[in-house]
Design a protein that fits this description.
Blueprint lengths: L1 H23 L6 H34 L14 E2 L2 E2 L7
Antiparallel strand pairs: 1-2
Length: 91
């Protein structure tokens, strides 16, 4: 019970500090705190943008695009109607 009471008091203290900062409109103590938050939000936005682009690429690009395949140039010596000769198996 002692651990639960300590945790409850700590959470209450933290909540009171956050509410006090919200009431006083001073969420950040310095400009470095504000800059760190902005950098974090830019990083988070970039990650979300990349995830969105990956989802668009996986979902839309594979089903919506029509790929034009070019015929490959193959020498007539190695290709037969049954497949490609494996010359390593020849005696």
């Amino acid at each position: 019970m002692d651990l639960a009471e300590d945790l409850g008091k700590e959470l209450e203290t933290t909540a009171q500090e956050v509410l006090g900062k919200l009431r006083s409109h001073t969420l950040f103590q310095s400009k470095w705190d504000t800059a760190a938050l902005i950098i974090f939000l830019i990083f988070l936005g970039t990650v979300l943008l990349f995830l969105l682009l990956v989802c668009i690429h996986c979902c839309c690009y594979s089903c919506c695009s029509r790929r034009v395949s070019r015929p490959q140039k193959v020498s007539s010596k190695q290709v037969h109607p049954r497949g490609v000769d494996n010359l390593a198996l020849e005696p």
